[in-house]
């Protein structure tokens, strides 16, 4: 299924209720002259699940090799944040960035249960954290189907609409999305050139991602990584506990123990040919860092490390 609509950016995104960075959101009138967003829904061939895709077109003509493109997971929330970072009159080279958000057909900024499924490996019940409301059933194990959807449907749909430089693709994810970004790097590293993992949930499923990491490290000893591969890992410094019954809070604390993005970044520093950057938002929480990490992803996609 493909339902296609072209609309102005802030009109299309006005109902999302996103708490973006403290910077001012560009006005619809300002964006009217520069960047437009198309929204269309795609049904995944392998699962029959519907997704909403946000495609932000630059106003300027494409560079000789095509537009660079940044793919954002949790697109309902992160596309408005990225357009705030780009601004109404973006400077070169940021004005040439195509932004693609992969989200869900909902008016909210997140679909929590869908993202649990799409961004995780199959996870034993004892390693699944308690749901936020204490009653919802968390389903896992959809990451390979989601990756196939991204590769075989989303990317071709974008490249059918705009001339894209296939050597300048960036993938951004936060939390479970950051975990997914690392998984793609470790297993399908040629699909994107730049990866951003913001506060990746390394702890998920008993730190199962470290198995893929170990295989990636072993492979890189002889093969290195595709030329131009870059990875930015960012972490938050302040822990905000969500209110839970004492037993659930203790269980969640145990599940979230172990390595973080900091340790992963230190390990990956040995990978030949990988441009690696790490940044710790010491004064930010897991949630408050998101718009800042989105802005860093824009700069990192154009070769600049976080300050």
Which descriptors apply to this entry?
disordered N terminus, Rossmann fold, 36% helix, 11 helices, alpha/beta, 9-stranded mixed β-sheet, 307 residues
How would you sum up this structure, described in words?
The protein has 307 residues and is an alpha/beta fold. The chain has a single domain (2-301), classed as 3-Layer(aba) Sandwich (Rossmann fold), CATH 3.40.50.1820. Helices cover 36% and strands 23% of the residues. It is built from eleven helices and nine strands. The protein has a nine-stranded mixed β-sheet, sandwiched between helices. β6 (164-174), α6 and β7 (194-198) form a beta-alpha-beta unit. α3 packs across α11 (290-301) and α6 (176-188) packs parallel to α8. The longest helix is centred in the middle third of the chain and has 19 residues, at 143-161. The model is unreliable at 1-32 (pLDDT under 50).
SSE layout and pairing:
Elements lengths: L1 E7 H5 L14 H5 L3 E8 L6 E8 L9 E7 L1 H12 L11 E6 L8 H7 L24 H19 L2 E11 L1 H13 L5 E5 L5 H4 L1 H15 L6 E9 L7 H10 L5 H8 L6 E11 L4 H12 L6
Parallel strand pairs: 4-5, 4-6, 6-7, 7-8, 8-9
Antiparallel strand pairs: 1-2, 2-3, 3-5
Helix pairs in contact: 3-11, 6-8
């Amino acid at each position: 299924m493909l339902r296609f609509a072209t609309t102005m950016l802030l009109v299309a995104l006005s109902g999302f209720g996103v708490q973006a960075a403290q910077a001012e959101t560009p006005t619809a009138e300002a964006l009217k002259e520069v960047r437009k967003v198309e929204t269309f829904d795609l049904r995944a061939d392998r699962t029959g699940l519907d997704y909403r895709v946000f495609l932000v077109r630059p106003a300027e003509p494409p560079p000789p090799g095509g537009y660079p493109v940044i793919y954002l997971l949790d697109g309902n929330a992160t596309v408005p944040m990225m357009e705030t970072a780009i601004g109404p009159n973006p400077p070169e080279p940021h004005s040439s960035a195509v932004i693609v958000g992969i989200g869900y057909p909902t008016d909210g900024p997140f679909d929590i249960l869908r993202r649990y499924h799409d961004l995780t490996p199959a996870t034993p019940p004892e390693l699944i954290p308690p749901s936020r409301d204490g009653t919802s059933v968390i389903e896992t194990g959809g990451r390979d189907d989601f990756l196939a959807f991204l590769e075989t449907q989303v990317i071709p749909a974008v490249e059918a609409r705009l001339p894209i430089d296939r050597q300048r693709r960036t993938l951004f994810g936060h939390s479970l999305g950051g975990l997914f970004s690392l998984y793609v790097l470790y297993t399908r590293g040629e699909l994107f050139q730049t990866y951003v993992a913001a506060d990746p949930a390394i702890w998920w499923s008993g730190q199962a991602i470290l198995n893929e990491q170990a295989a990636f490290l072993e492979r890189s000893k002889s093969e290195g990584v595709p030329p131009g591969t870059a990875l930015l890992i960012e972490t938050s410094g302040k822990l905000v506990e969500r209110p839970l019954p004492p037993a659930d809070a203790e269980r969640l604390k145990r599940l979230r123990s172990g390595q973080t993005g900091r340790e992963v970044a230190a390990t990956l520093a040995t990978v030949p040919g990988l441009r690696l950057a790490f940044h710790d938002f010491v004064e930010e929480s897991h949630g408050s860092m998101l718009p800042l990490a989105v802005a860093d992803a824009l700069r990192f996609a154009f070769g600049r490390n976080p300050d």
